[in-house]
Amino acid sequence: MSTGWSWYVIALVVLNIAGCAWLLWWTARRRPGDPKPEDTSHVWDGDITEYNKPLPKWWINLFYITIVFSIGYLVWYPGFGNFAGASGWTSAGAHDAEKARRDRQLEETFGVYANQPLPQLAGDPQAMALGRSIFANTCAACHGSSAQGAPGYPNLTDATWNWGGDPERILQTVLDGREGVMPPLGTVLEGMGGDVAITQAAAYVRALRSEDIEATLRNDYMAARGKKYFDGLCVACHGPDGRGNTELGAPDLTVRNTLYPNTLESIRTTIIEGRHGVMPAHRALLGETRARLVAAYVWSLSNAPAGAPPERQ
Asked: What's the structural domain count of the chain?
């Protein structure tokens, strides 16, 4: 809070407290010329009389005690501009202390799973129950309660991993997050062949997902023409065969369970506008042990331990 705003708050508080004290004093006393309590002449229904009397002393004194309490409160706790209060208490400090206490409790609960390999955790039913609970609280908002994702959010139950599906790669993703960027190429392609070049490149990408790409290219003129644009612009990230690069997060373009709809229009949108996908880091939120548990649960969705029953969705 700036000095100017601090003085504004201080002035406002002082004026309010002083105003309350003055109002109590002003209304609690009788003034010359006030009618006696029985002389107001305000009578209703024959026997209900209005008396002109101040509040009882005990009631007035309660109000004064409240004012004194408020002054003491502002001395002890923050609330008087930038003055931090004699106690040094802050809501942020109280939150941090409570969080530290809760974190210690969680460490005691999850400590037995610290540093265990993900496949080992995946074979422990109790660890998987905890991992499933953490997933529901932390990950389901994006990936869905069944972990099957949505457009722009990966399906975690299949074998397609843009950043690699090895246990340690999944753990790294959970801990430190990922950021994948597909740059917009619409302007570049328009300069190479107009809007039709964008459509041809999109048709070629879609052809990569066919069962027999050679036959598709022989029968699809637009896809065949789009290969030269793919070779000129896309191979640096997706590779000459379109199978992607897990070091860059460049997706495998030959799989059918794609991150965005496998339609020509959707692929055109990706080429023209690009895509920007962010998986937030959870190291600070979960800590390493809880991140390890949820990573083991995610890994288990597509790598069930031998002899284990299939995961119920």
From this structure: 3
- According to DSSP, residue 32 is labeled T
Averaged over successive runs of 10 residues, the pLDDT of the chain (313 residues) comes to 88 94 83 68 72 76 94 90 87 91 84 93 94 96 94 93 95 96 94 93 94 90 94 94 94 91 94 95 92 96 64 43
User: What is the rounded CA–CA span in Å between residue 171 and residue 282?
Assistant: 10
Round to whole Å and give the CA distance between 289 and 4: 47
The verdict on residue 263 lying in a domain is yes
> Do 167 and 117 touch, CB atoms closer than 8 A?
yes
Burial class from Cβ neighbours inside 10 Å (0-12, 13-18, 19+) for residue 258 reads buried
Residues 6+ apart with CB under 8 A from 276: 179, 180, 181, 182
User: What residues make up the domain containing 237?
Assistant: 181-279
pTM: 0.67
**DSSP state letter for 250:** B
- Beta-bridge mates of residue 83: 80
In a domain, 22, yes or no: yes
In a domain, 226, yes or no: yes
Reported as a single tens digit per residue, the pLDDT across 9-32 is 999 999 999 999 999 888 777 667
* Whole-angstrom distance, CA of residue 147 vs CA of residue 118: 18
Distance CA 253, CA 208 (A): 6
Assigned domain for 309 exists = no
Q: Please state, in angstroms and as integers, the Cα–Cα distance from residue 311 to each residue in 127, 161, 297, 307, following that order.
A: 14, 19, 10, 12
Q: What is the CATH number of the domain that holds 228?
A: 1.10.760.10
Within its chain, how far is the Cα of 224 from the centroid? 43
Cα gap 207→224, rounded to integer Å: 9
CB count, 10 Å around CB of 8? 13
Distance CA 166, CA 72 (A): 60
